[in-house]
Amino acid sequence: EAIERAEDSKSKARYNFILAQLHQRAGRWNEAYTGFEKVASSSVNYEMQFNARLNMAQNSWLSGKGSAESATAQLERMLKDAKNQEYRDRIYYALSNVALKNNNKPKAIEYLTLSVRSAGNNPAQVTESYYTLAQLYFDEEKFIQTKNYLDSTLTVMDKKDDRLKSATI
């Protein structure tokens, strides 16, 4: 209803993005993809279009609109685009999600490591990448790496983060 009542294209795109995120969280991949597609094709600011395209790539194969390989190729093309230089950490994180959903933990770890190395001034993304690396190493019972990545997580994690207690094993 908010989308229909929005008076400007920026508000309409923002509401479409929020609705797409809700669909994504509920596992409704087709609806999420469609919502992000609307945002990507709108004339809103570049960051919102970038985030929509990033989510479209991740949702494309989950919705049946593509394969894991095509999602990876799409994300890798985004890495090469000079406009996305400051977002490389998020693209690598998205690539790690595709790899994880495709049961390829070694590749996910590689992408997460690249995400951390590419991080600019985005402590939230660094937190996610470190924390995910810690979880993956914990699952493999590699406890030294787990501790190291949890320690790194704690250096950047917001003190109000719900996962703070679990990160301080």
Give the topology string: H per helix, E per strand: HHHHHHHHHH
The tally of helices reads: 10
β-strand percent reads under 5%
Characterize the overall form: globular
Helix-residue proportion: over 70%
The Rg value, from CA coordinates, equals: 17 Å
The low-pLDDT segments are none
Number of separate strands: 0
Q: How confident is the prediction overall: mean pLDDT? A: 91
Main beta sheet, described? none
**SSE class:** mainly alpha
Distance between the termini: 45 Å
Short description:
This protein is an all-alpha fold.
Can you put this structure into words, describing what you see?
The protein is an all-alpha fold. The chain has helices spanning 2-5, 9-25, 29-40, 46-62, 68-80, 88-101, 105-118, 123-139, 143-156, 164-167. Helix 2 (9-25) runs antiparallel to helix 3 (29-40) and helix 4 runs antiparallel to helix 5. The longest helix is centred in the N-terminal third of the chain and has 17 residues, at 9-25. It is globular. It starts with a helix and ends with a helix. The mean pLDDT is 91.
SSE layout and pairings?
Blueprint: H1 2-5, H2 9-25, H3 29-40, H4 46-62, H5 68-80, H6 88-101, H7 105-118, H8 123-139, H9 143-156, H10 164-167
Helix pairs in contact: 2-3, 3-4, 4-5, 5-6, 6-7, 7-8, 8-9
